[in-house]
Specification:
The chain is of the alpha+beta class. The chain has helices at about 15-20, 25-30, 120-140; strands spanning about 1-10, 35-40, 50-55, 60-70, 75-80, 85-95, 100-110. It has three helices and seven strands. The protein has a seven-stranded antiparallel β-sheet with strand order 1-7-6-5-4-3-2.
Amino acid sequence: MKISRTVETTAAPAAVFAYLSDFSNTTEWDPGTIETTRVSGDGGVGTVYKNVSEFNGNKSELTYETVELVPERKIALKGEGKAVHADDLMELSPTGNGGTRVDYTADIRFKGALKLAEPFLGKAFKKLGDEAEEGLREALAKL
């Protein structure tokens, strides 16, 4: 299941990149996130985060790793859990007013028997995406 959203903010690309590249900030803008903590690393490529989220009434724990960073342009992470694999990609581009456009895609794939549930989760994923988009918009407006 893919969730893709676009958010524009008046915050400069450098500020947006600094904020989003620290994945522990998901607790401030992603309503599905209960807790994200940095486990290891300095915030660069190879940094590992532990994420506890709730989706559709179920808690899950994923270990995310930052796999690519292009300053002010791109942030990519891979997440692994017992039942889920996730690829998160945030692409940043400057806007004409000095702000930033963020294109965020989360590609979430269930493992094992949960794969069978994917076709029935479309509405729940749309709601999750809508709430995350609003949370991200509000968080970036404060930068």
